[in-house]
């Protein structure tokens, strides 16, 4: 399958993330050996200037067939719908027009990262650049291509959301496409591949014991649960970040800071400071998904009162101060 | 500056009285204009416009064609929200952006980090910068030497085998080494890019003693890759190269990607092209304000101490409103957006050609990057190379690689100096009002954040990024920016649409366009 990559209004971080894909011979070899031919990528291919522009023109005009269009970055429609805030250099034409033409020719269209899927950080606040995603503006259908867009092979835009997106999410999505294993049923309500979007960041959280007892971090670098005070949305955010490690060993909560739910539409405007948990009467507004509020409050009160000293003390420190007790051998 | 007759790249110094070259298109009757874009293998969107007369570049304009409005977005936010938003300016300088914001907030609060926090921040920033140097060398810069245009040069077959974009054998060796190296991020910063681990008071992640051991293991593997593949020699021997003659002798006796580059650079005379203003700025890197690994300052043939008051920006050639030149602490960013309902009416400021402001230091055009960092820090080899030929393509590439050889051993020392169970993060109250500056070094040079806090919110936020300096447009006085100067004088063939020589000069700055205009 021939893959064409465009960078719209973004930071290039999803490409940087992709380059970190863990493979014995690197991501280029990994893609090539699975039958993906990288036709052009603005950051990585040889063709520059006129050579690249000719290639894009052929693809947009239908003379050069290709299969997959990956767009990385939000689509800037401003000012006043002109697209003038982002001209594809060398072409004198707004990037949004290139994306519209190329999307109409592609068999599959992938939105790489939350910016491309929903607008993301580009759309913060008053959104002066009229940034949006390919098929969504935040959690509303729309975007550059509109609700009814379907790529030639029949699927809507595939939203590989994340800020940045995980290299494994891109690679697995591409491999599923190559293998014919990605269908409309493979996508969730926000058109993200379900293989990672139907999990929660909470799953596999290394702070699970602190969460169980509501032993909460009080300040930055504390080991405790980050949900009550530090703004963590891991119990609400859809992604497999704690069962699929980042950079071999990490994740946001493993790094000691809150999950800011960067795979979700609208994460960029949470309505509160990112690193503080908004509360009403001392109770966090954002409770774990699928959990009745009254039960959460009752269980939280109970578990707080049952917190072992070890867990409480360690939750307020940046390193364990009390080790788990040793138990004599024998039946446990 | 004279070039050998057999060189593919013949170049002469810019004509005397460079001011004459500042004319508008059409001023040179026999000239042609070449617009190069999308100028790829840089981070972000770049367009280079050249006026060519008599086969030579007589004038260059460098345009950044993407405006996102980060400085506008930040106003009114909680000050710590900057730590979420600014890394997302750039996926390749993400930690540098983070570090600059954290440093500006710390400056506003009068806060110092505990030693572990400082060491961990150094490790995280160094990891990004060294990984970026590798990415630049193997993925952005070297593939140009594998081009068809160079077939016939004695080194072309090797360059094609090693460095061909996407399919060369070198990227297949480098990418796994880079991914393994980035485990440092997984361990200390959660992930890369876009971590929240760097805070004004240190880092959020206290490394355990076993993680400290694992950092050594990662660094040992990475050193092995560098010594085998990139250098063919131990890092300390490379960083100790002190004279041009010593470097030439070394290159002759080693088999490695660095030696291959030196061979190519020699043949193509890359040491005499791409000269800019020869004023070099470094914010200084790694360590506290008093004890940095690389010093802060300006190098113009002499060391000049850094003076923050000398920084100014103007918008004379940008699609931004405002006049005069301003210090970033009083700066503003107002996108020019008056009344152009239709695309073809975007002509209300005809002298503008980019979204990029024109930063100046004491009114002077400066260059920044690894070369500037090493010149200011006093590396004898680079000072000798620049004393002989000024800033140039070859010296910029050498500086990045020598810096890898200098920084990785420093990373080993920082990892050794971490003390598990001691604090990594100073706790602190956020001031309701105040102002601060954060001056750090990204891989590609000096990055500054200036912020003002009022009533507990960000009241103003200004960013001057490395490539804002290097790829600045003309200033209010009409003086071209660093790259615009560096391109003048290059020989360009009549038929060339994307001349390789232009690509070497542009990429020698390791530009990051998404940082340039944010």
SSE topology string of chain A: EHHEHEEEEHEHEEEEHHHEEHH
Q: How would a crystallographer describe the biggest sheet of chain B?
A: 4 strands, mixed
The whole-angstrom Rg of chain B is: 22 Å
Number of strands of chain A: 13
CATH secondary-structure class of chain B? Mainly Alpha
What is the global morphology of chain B? globular
**Average pLDDT rating of chain B:** 92
Q: What is the share of helical residues of chain B?
A: 25-40%
Strand content of chain B: 5-15%
What quaternary form is this?
A: heterodimer
Structural class of chain B: alpha+beta
Total helices of chain A: the number is 10
- Percent helix of chain A: 10-25%
- Major sheet attributes of chain A: 5 strands, parallel
Query: What's the CATH H-level superfamily name of the largest domain in chain A?
Result: NADH:ubiquinone oxidoreductase-like, 20kDa subunit
Radius of gyration of chain A over all CA atoms, rounded: 22 Å
Question: What would you say this structure looks like, in words?
Answer:
The complex is a heterodimer of chains A (332) and B (518). Chain A has helices at residues 13-19, 26-33, 50-61, 95-103, 114-118, 167-178, 194-197, 208-212, 293-305, 309-315, and strands at residues 2-7, 37-40, 68-72, 75-76, 87-88, 93-94, 108-112, 131-132, 136-137, 140-141, 158-160, 279-280, 283-284. Chain A is an alpha/beta fold and 332 residues long. Chain A has two domains: 2-195, NADH:ubiquinone oxidoreductase-like, 20kDa subunit (Rossmann fold), CATH 3.40.50.700; 199-318, Cytochrome-c3 hydrogenase, C-terminal domain (Cytochrome-c3 Hydrogenase, Chain A, domain 2). Chain B is α+β, with helices and mostly antiparallel strands and 518 residues long. In chain B, 37% of the residues lie in helices and 14% in strands. Chain B has helices spanning 70-74, 82-85, 94-109, 115-141, 156-163, 169-181, 183-188, 209-230, 235-239, 244-252, 257-268, 370-377, 380-389, 393-417, 466-470, 482-487, 500-508, 513-516, and strands at residues 32-36, 46-53, 56-64, 198-199, 202-203, 280-282, 297-299, 303-304, 311-314, 325-326, 358-361, 367-368, 434-442, 445-454, 457-464. The radius of gyration of chain B is 22 Å and the shape is globular. The model of chain B is unreliable at 1-29 and 339-345 (pLDDT under 50). At the A-B interface, helix 1, helix 2, helix 3 and strand 5 of A face helix 2, helix 4, helix 6, helix 7 and strand 5 of B.
